Amino acid sequence: xxxxxxxxxxxxxxxxxxxxxxxxxxxxxxxxxxxxxxxxxxxxxxxxxxxxxxxxxxxxxxxxxxxxxxxxxxxxxxxxxxxxxxxxxxxxxxxxxxxxxxxxxxxxxxxxxxxxxxxxxxxxxxxxxxxxxxxxxxxxxxxxxxxxxxxxxxxxxxxxxxxxxxxxxxxxxxxxxxxxxxxxxxxxxxxxxxxxxxxxxxxxxxxxxxxxxxxxxxxxxxxxxxxxxxxxxxxxxxxxxxxxxxxxxxxxxxxxxxxxx
Length: 261
Hints:
The protein is 37% helix and 27% strand. It is an alpha+beta fold. The strands form three sheets. A seven-stranded mixed beta sheet has the order 3-4-5-6-7-8-9, sandwiched between helices. α1 runs antiparallel to α2, α4 runs antiparallel to α8 and α5 (185-193) packs parallel to α6 (207-219).
C-alpha cells in the first residue's frame, strides 16, 4: 500500500500542476453544463485523462472509476476512484478552493486517500490503519465537545432533500454553532480531519467526492457514518462526519434535516 500511496501522491501533484495551469488561464477554458448544478470543463477532462494514463502505466491490472470518463475494469481487485477537480464551480470562478482527489478501494474498504490542493500546496494523505497526514505531519480531528467550539461545513446538491440545508443551518446555529460552505466537499471533509472545522454534513455525495476524505477523518480520530465503499460507488451516500465529541449531535441534526417532508 505504501507503493500505491507514493505513486498516488506523485500522480496527484502532477495532475494538480496541470489543473493549476488551466486555473491560471480561465479565459480560454471551454465549459459545459452536465446538469442543473454540475459544470464540467476541458480542465476536468484533461486532468482525469492524465491521472488515468498514469495509473494504467503504474498499475495496469487495477480498475479505474472517474467522474468524467467511463469506468475501466480491472483484474487485481483494487479500484482507483478519481475526482479530477473537486469544486469545479470554485475553479471556474477563480476561487482557490478546489482539489484533486484520488482514493483506492479493495476488499470492501477504502485503503488509501490523497487530496491535493494546488492553490495552497496542501497535500492530505491517509492509509487504512496508517493515520492521516497534512504535508507529511500527522493530523487529528477536533476534540470539541459541542457545536459552539468551531465551524461546521455544509454542502448541497440537487439530490438533497428539499429544504434540508435550511434545516441544517437552523439547527446548527440554533445550538450556537457556526456554518461554513467551501463548495468543495472533499476539501471540507479533509478540513475536519485536520481539525480546521469540527464537522461536515451533506445530503448526498458521490464516491469520488468523499471516499478519500472520509478515510482521512476516520484515521485522524474523527467519526463517520458506517458505510460500504462499494455501495457508495454504486449509489452515493449522505455525509455526516465530525470530531468524536460532536458527531452524535451532528448525526441527530442530520437525521432530522434529511428527512423528506
